[in-house]
Each structure stands twice: as C-alpha cells, then as structure tokens.
Here is the input.
Amino acid sequence: MKTLVKTFAAAALIAVSTFAMAAEGPVSKSEKTTINLSTADLTLDHYVAVTTEGESAGVEQLFAEDFNQKIQASNAQSNSRSDVVKSLKKQKGEKLNCTISIGIIEESADYMVAKVTLKFENFTKTDLVTLERVGNDWKVSKSINSYK
Here is the structure.
C-alpha cells in the first residue's frame, strides 16, 4: 500500500512539473536581454564584465554599429563588431584570472575614453576603450589593445 501511495505521489509530482514547464513556454532566441547602458560608467562596467567575466547578456547592444577593435602586437590585427561579438559569445561563462584596474582618461557629456588594464601572471593587457552616447544609451565604439 505504501509503495502504491509513493508511486501515485511521484506520478503527480512529475505531471505537475511537466505542466508548469509547458505553461512557461519556450523562450524565443530573438528575445534579447536588455542591459542598462544609460550612463558611461554602467556601459564601461558591463564591457569589463563581458570581456573578463564571461558575461554574455546584452553583448549585441553593448557595441556601436561601427565598432572597431585593434590589437597592437608583433602582427597588428583589426576586428569588426561582428567578429568581437561572436568571440565574446563563445567565451560565455569563462572568467579571466587577472587583476583589473580601470582609469578614466577623458570624459565629457557625449564620450569617454578609459584605460582598462588586465594584469596576468606573465603579461599585462592594456585596453583603451572609447565610449560614445548614441541616443539615450552609451555604446563602446572603439577598443585598442596592447600587450606587455
């Protein structure tokens, strides 16, 4: 008798769970997470989270349409917005093992230039980031990386 009661309880629990999940419905891939980019500081903080902590929410809205990334190294590289977004999405959940420092170089009502330094065990990456006001939001419009 106890086994029969346990079986019915388990079946009821499974049925309720299934109905609850079905009621939520599938989440559309076209639905995008909206991130608050109303200030330069919030946008810069989100940029650092995306590039160092594997945050992937709002990656598409973070970058300006004409975003460009340059990497200064022995063989200089240039990456488009779509290249960077694709790369950052692949890094979802990956946290970099480094010490982060952020300094504001220049700031006005419509733009900001910041220096983001990532200190790793054997090298340092410096990222000069330009942010611009686009409508009511701020966007990252340029990134120049160098390594020491």
Notes: The chain is about 35% helix and 35% strand.
